[in-house]
């Protein structure tokens, strides 16, 4: 009972992955911005990790100063357009909107934000430029939300900036890891181009920094190095049968989907393992790719899932079924995946315990593991004096982002262990200022 | 079922809703369509000397997402031949004998007035309205508001009209004057049967930011026009009240200005109007709005037990007093219903910046708190609060005392120093001026500013630490 037909062409793919936060037209933006109360010390600002002055930009939209609105947004967050679409606004700004307390629909802040920034991007409005050159150079590893945000901020402070990106496109997670119904590649890349044009930093694509020699070269040529490397591949489950065909990592699956669109192969019956937001994405995407049955299997109860409720609702809305209190014990099959052997679990004193003798096999022809990503420990071990904590996160000064190797600074998933685009963008901006303070002796 | 019909200075109408003299009453076609829709009467678009019009003619004031909260025009009186209009008036009256057709007129000489009054009487008009209000185009030629602003001229012209008029005559007044009752009294002295008000207010509704020209723009230029629409209702209500309360006016009033729904109409009626005229709303939404208006009025009258329109005419007038007759002992202060508060803190900023600094923020909650002793009961907080019944004004006096400014003046107890009893009997309470500084720092600073502030705070701390 698939709700979506398997897409076989680009238009069909786009139809299945229609944007859940579509672009507002001018009338919509006018009506919606009219509703903002202009709260004092607005809760939406406080709820935004990047602290955008939301009432200000909404009022600017309402008075026809859309360019000013875009400036307000970008001053706080260089991923202004992307964040408007991919942020979990339901639990951030919109979740904090005082209208919620009156049972009135909160202001659609995310869509208003994208409305303003999109216009600036399309008209290539000159809002920012590099600051006067200060003669110093910073290398940035990783062109994700953290790396690009740091690049923009450092350029505005007058630094020369080179970004090294292992992949062929910028923006990291935003283009490779976000569900396609949240934002399109074109939209992400347009914002990246806009920022590059505004700030004039260089990005070198297909340039992985992976060896000590390469790091040494950076250490010699640059005054500071920013690590915006994010996380690594999906963690292995260490279960028998995991190597079978069609047992894939969620991160890898989503990346393939983002790049290859309808050419991505999806099983007819898919089991997604995990209870986080990535699991919801992978399940929802499988359904939109035409899978007949999609089962979300999680080892604890529904209430204990890490995913936001609205993300689970989104998955349920496209026909995904939940299977709770089950733990996978084996990926069964003969060469390729034929099912997952589960054992039922119960939670006792917060601990997951298996129920002996309750094993069963749920047949499927594809398994997507959304069970967390590994840290990039290999690369980090090549940096002298760099400390990581027991969860593999880079240890850094909370305020400046400086690591235990004073030349290295970091932000984003590699430091926070995995969070939203908006967190990476906000942290990176602060870290860029930390770099500035360090290099100008202002610590 | 209440009776909506009226007999306005002898003009009978099935309900009090008339279309005002304006574009919607430009032709027999429109007037018949309006009557068919349910309007009780129509004041025909002003007939007079030949005029020509410009394009464009209208300008609008939009507020946030609302269109035409204010509206203006630079259109003149009817530019259709008098004979066409007379023939159409006759036809409308044949088809709608029980509806009110009032001819609006504007000419110059005594002879012209005599001729045109006879013409419209012959055509079958139920009444005449003298347009002494148009504030643009015609006034420069000595008509319209130019007449309305000169009570003696107005009186003279009314006298000319009354020499030949056999049907009721209404004088339409201009609000472009300091005291509306003066032309109203002049109309009475001249023998008019009724007055109608207000005509449009001289205005510029806006300026094109690219063309540097006022709206509406005619080939790159513009002119002041006549303002109307919902935005003018407060001005109209006040002027209707002024005329209704004045002992020397004593004429039936047709209320005009910002009437868009039944509530607006009832407000005009409660302040003394016994018919109401509508234009902008009909231009904006069409004749169909009459259904909402009559049904709302009927429901209101049923709920209140009013049988006829005349049961409610002027019902609010006894409660409209001069300031000096208001009870100085009556005291209210604001009360925040915490359960309803959504924490927008608009009341806090309004009181802090725009009123009396009588609201404070509290640790650990976004619900602000009223500082009772500082609250002067001004009402601003409850007006800005977006939640119904969240901020209410609670009565603080026990109702036993009553004292007005007039009584104090009579008793010789008028204050000789600034000491406002209403602020707790002390001198008016104001925080120390220095307390204003740095207040915004309590606020969540946006984006970049917040980072700078943090960096500054950190730098300050570092300096303090190093100096220890």
From TrEMBL, chain A:
InterPro entries: 4Fe4S_Fe-S-bd (IPR017896), DPD_II (IPR028261), FAD/NAD-bd_sf (IPR036188), FAD/NAD-binding_dom (IPR023753), Helical_ferredxn (IPR009051). GO terms for molecular function: iron-sulfur cluster binding; oxidoreductase activity. Pfam families: Fer4_20, Pyr_redox_2. Residues 27-60 form the 4Fe-4S ferredoxin-type domain. This is FAD-dependent oxidoreductase.
UniProtKB/TrEMBL annotation, chain B:
The keyword Hydrolase does not apply. Pfam families: DHO_dh, Fer4_21. Its EC number is 1.3.1.1. One of its GO terms (cellular component) is cytoplasm. Keywords: Iron, Iron-sulfur, Metal-binding, Oxidoreductase. Transmembrane segments: none annotated. It catalyses: 5,6-dihydrothymine + NAD(+) = thymine + NADH + H(+); 5,6-dihydrouracil + NAD(+) = uracil + NADH + H(+). It is an enzyme of class 1 (oxidoreductase). GO terms for molecular function: dihydropyrimidine dehydrogenase (NAD+) activity; iron-sulfur cluster binding; metal ion binding. Belongs to the dihydropyrimidine dehydrogenase family. NCBIfam families: PRK08318.1. Involved in pyrimidine base degradation. Catalyzes physiologically the reduction of uracil to 5,6-dihydrouracil (DHU) by using NADH as a specific cosubstrate. It also catalyzes the reverse reaction and the reduction of thymine to 5,6-dihydrothymine (DHT). This is dihydrouracil dehydrogenase (NAD(+)). The lineage of its organism: Bacteria, Pseudomonadati, Bacteroidota, Cytophagia, Cytophagales.
